[in-house]
Amino acid sequence: MGKTIIISNRLPVQLQISNGSITAVPSVGGLATGMKSVHSGGDSLWIGWSGLTDEEIPKELAPQIDKALAEHGSSKVNLSQEEVDGFYFGFSNRTIWPLFHYFLEYSEFELDSWNTYKNVNQKFADAVLASSDEEDTIWIHDYQLMLVPQMVRKQRPNIAIGFFLHIPFPSYEIFRTLPWREEVLEGLLGSDLIGFHTYDYERHFLSSVRRLLGLEVHFNEIDVSNRLVKVDSFPMGIDYKKFSTAAKNHGNNKASEQSDLQRRLNKHKESTPDAKFILSIDRLDYTKGIAKRLNAFEYFLKKYPEYKEKVRLIILAVPSRSNVPQYQLLKREVDELVGRINGELATVSWTPIWYFYRSLPFENLIDLYTSSDIAWLTPIRDGMNLVAKEYIATRTDKTGVLILSEMAGSANEMNEALLINPNNFEQISESLYRAINMPVEEQKERNSQLQKRLERYNVEKWANDFMTSLREQRELDAINISR
Ligand code: ADQ
């Protein structure tokens, strides 16, 4: 058996340059953790962009960088600033991201950035080709690299290729508006297995394949000349143990070991013991419905004024893609909304919204998850949403209420949450009321079910299920071909 090669836009390590030397620090993100069991040192390689453009890497450090990455089983694809602009900020984040999240009006269809996307995908494919042979297994991740499967397949007809899409696949009516729709589908069909978070995304993809390429689809397999491509759903989980253990340890912390944030949260809890903390955590992205959520919060407080001074909304937004104009506009909109609502409703002793615009270290995420009575996640469209799962995993005493948008992939597996339509303010405000008043017994019952499922279908299981399915698909295909 050959080695496993993982390909994603970003590598699972971050490069830090200081005082003329370089260090590679492992990232703590969900994908990096989930792939741990697959990316296990010697017989696997992770190919991706390092996060630094060619212009940002001092020439004399280049060999050191390659060495530092190799120590983490990683190898980088070099990208210039122009390539990053066209491929990442351009086609990936101004065309595919809005389109696949149903923000058709935000999607820009520019030939130049499409061409850069193709060229950069070819660079990733070339990097794979340079380090692989036919015995290897390739797992390609996400919407930035949808052409890579076909590009690799062309040169290595018998290699095993899996692809996983982390964002939704939109319905045919949306997808068909993309000028390069056939090329994208053909790019993906270079794979043996294509994975999505949900059955609906899978269905949408199959429908586009059937209608745009006229290919035959048998249940969830597509007949592509002399191969069968399998399409399936693999709902991504989290590193459950990491979150639940951190929450348990956090509960045992002595006052002196607590973070400043935790001390501040405690102080507020002590001064207003009946008050509820409502938490929302997202990247600052228009798909996450942050502005709508703020409006819905104001709607709730106007409808139920008795909850003034009794609830506090903590909004944590991670800066994201701030080079893209839509993200700059959203930042301004959220800043203004928070200012206006706080300005209108605050009292001497109460600020309704605490707004943090930054990335926080893991310990602080745990502070927030464990201190919040309600997690309020209302994306307008979200491939999965791991924050919902992380919140539940940290509720070690099983209290807490999750309010979750039905437009998030995770809603399919989290029926015990209060599911809402993010556009229905009346329903949202009723669910907030219900969450605030939910008896503890009911909270525990709902969370027990959720926790059982999340613990079982953790991220490691997700990665292993995908790899097993890819292997089985290859075996089946080999039997079919030999017939
Ligand atoms: P994202 O859109 O980034 O991922 P999500 O699944 O919620 O969305 O993951 C965000 C991650 O960032 C979580 O692990 C969270 O803990 C972390 N995070 C959020 N805010 C933070 C902060 N302020 N500081 C530090 N960390 C923070 C994409 C898709 C999702 C899909 C994932 C995985 O858009 O739908 O669930 O990929 O496939």
What is this entry, summarized?
This protein is α/β, with parallel strands linked by helices. 46% of the residues lie in helices and 18% in strands. The model has no long low-confidence stretch (mean pLDDT 94).
Could you outline the blueprint of secondary structure elements for this entry?
Elements: E1 4-10, E2 13-18, E3 21-26, H1 30-34, E4 44-49, H2 62-70, E5 74-76, H3 81-100, H4 111-131, E6 137-141, H5 148-155, E7 160-164, H6 172-175, H7 181-188, E8 193-196, H8 199-213, E9 217-218, E10 221-224, E11 227-233, H9 240-252, H10 260-271, E12 276-283, H11 290-303, E13 311-318, H12 325-345, E14 353-357, H13 362-371, E15 374-377, H14 386-393, E16 401-405, E17 418-420, H15 425-436, H16 440-456, H17 459-482
Parallel strand pairs: 1-4, 1-6, 4-5, 6-7, 7-8, 8-11, 12-13, 12-15, 13-14, 15-16, 16-17
Antiparallel strand pairs: 2-3, 9-10, 10-11
Helix pairs in contact: 3-4, 4-5, 7-8, 9-13, 9-14, 10-13, 11-12, 11-15
Bound molecules: adenosine-5'-diphosphate-glucose.
Adenosine-5'-diphosphate-glucose is lined by residues 30, 166-167, 236, 281, 283, 316, 318, 359-360, 365, 382-387, 390.
List the defining traits of the structure above.
about 475 residues, alpha/beta, 17 helices, about 20% strand
**Protein structure class:** alpha/beta
Small-molecule components bound: adenosine-5'-diphosphate-glucose
Mean pLDDT: 94
Proportion of residues in helical segments: 40-55%
Lateral strand order in the biggest sheet = 5-4-1-6-7-8-11-10-9
Portion of residues in beta strands equals 15-25%
Q: What overall geometry do the principal axes of the alpha carbons give?
A: globular
The main sheet comes to: 9 strands, mixed
Family: In the C-terminal section; belongs to the trehalose phosphatase family.
Protein name: Bifunctional alpha,alpha-trehalose-phosphate synthase (UDP-forming)/trehalose-phosphatase
GO molecular function, one term: trehalose-phosphatase activity
Region (Disordered): 249-268
